[in-house]
């Protein structure tokens, strides 16, 4: 997709640069947008021929400006890439696309001078120029590609290539510019400079053949006979071989297409022996079908077999068509030579710069040597003068040094005496310092003793205060105890009275209980008598039954609860009734207290 985008950009660049410019060299928006323009304009036509959905407000949103605002090439290219070229899928007619761009730019740029080329031939040369031009703007075709194109045209016309003539032209071209524009290339081919003796029809056929090969990727074409799959008859067809397909038409005008033979890496081609009166046969095998074809002669047969085998080999290797691969190699070679030339120029510049630097350094060294020689002569002269002056000065300095030495010896003796006195004074000061240090230690000890006594006095005062506070506290507690003793005594008296009253009530209750116990005992005696009587009756009845039956054991009634035994015999009440009475006594006792 990157290579396709570059090819599209070259044609669009011609169309864009052909639009009307304002004074600043920019294009009005109305010439780029589909809305607001009276006739066909660039953006709308591009979307149409490239089968891209057109967005009429995309350009307006991209620039956000009034309709009269100018748009430069740098401003339109981002819109072109984002809203048009990125959406291209490859399902468009390249010839129709190029013809649209040619229509926009040809009228303004095409020369009016007499030419061997028709408008259709000029259009094809323009498309070939876009294919062979360099990938930089403004677009030009370099002399190497011009030579390649002219050789292809000369070969297609069946003429001989005039290398010497082109070399002269190339030298003249290199002195003035790097290459030719599209319109200059059209003028060059139309002038007949390199096709002398050829008529317009021959030149047109050569251009068409080169156009088919370079632009339409036609690797080979021609009439052959094809055997039908259903009726098995032989029909003449015009075959066109492209990198991945063989199309066949009724005639070479390519108007009525009859079918395609899809080529892939699994296809193969092989020669067949003559049969059914047909000669020069070969077979194209594909995955789903096989095609029997008859060439006009053995040479054509071999050429077609070789061309198809080469095409399948390229498909297996994933390589581009031969002319595109050759173009890429030529471009890489030019880039390599250009890089080598630039590297050579850089090295020459570096060598030249290094040479100039060496020359400058040598000149600097020469000047430095001359200056050093002059300085050396001057220094020698000054040295001799200085030597005489130094000898005189040395004699004076020697005498002066002797006098200074004597003075120094006297001063040393005086300083020695002063030093002895100073040392004596230092020893006295050290002795005084020791005495002062001892006095300070005594004073410090006295202060510590004073501080100890002061702390002892403070502690005694604190203890005295604490004891006094404790005595006062004991005195208060004693008074409170006395008061509490009086109150407790009164309270105990009240409690004693209450307890006596409760004791009397309890004695009364005890007497009442004694009476109730006696009544209950009397009732118990009566019940006991009745029970003995019932037991006797039951025993006599049981004896009778046992006498008659012998096997019957009667169930006797028994006491459900254990009897309570008191000091006076069996109790007349149960344990539960006793607990209830104890709770009642405790409640009455608590209430009385």
Automatic annotation (TrEMBL):
SMART domains: PH. It is found in: Cell membrane; Cell projection, Lamellipodium; Cytoplasm; Nucleus. CDD domains: PH_SWAP-70. SUPFAM superfamilies: PH domain-like (SSF50729). One of its GO terms (molecular function) is DNA binding. Pfam families: EF-hand_SWAP70_N (PF25530), PH (PF00169). One of its GO terms (cellular component) is cytoplasm. Residues 217-313 form the PH domain. It comes from the Eukaryota. Transmembrane segments: none annotated. The keyword Chloroplast does not apply. The keyword Nucleus applies. The SWAP complex consists of NPM1, NCL, PARP1 and SWAP70. PANTHER family: SWAP-70 RECOMBINASE, SWITCH-ASSOCIATED PROTEIN 70. Phosphatidylinositol 3,4,5-trisphosphate-dependent guanine nucleotide exchange factor (GEF) which, independently of RAS, transduces signals from tyrosine kinase receptors to RAC. It also mediates signaling of membrane ruffling. Regulates the actin cytoskeleton as an effector or adapter protein in response to agonist stimulated phosphatidylinositol (3,4)-bisphosphate production and cell protrusion. This is Switch-associated protein 70. It comes from Eubucco bourcierii (red-headed barbet). The lineage of its organism: Eukaryota, Metazoa, Chordata, Craniata, Vertebrata.
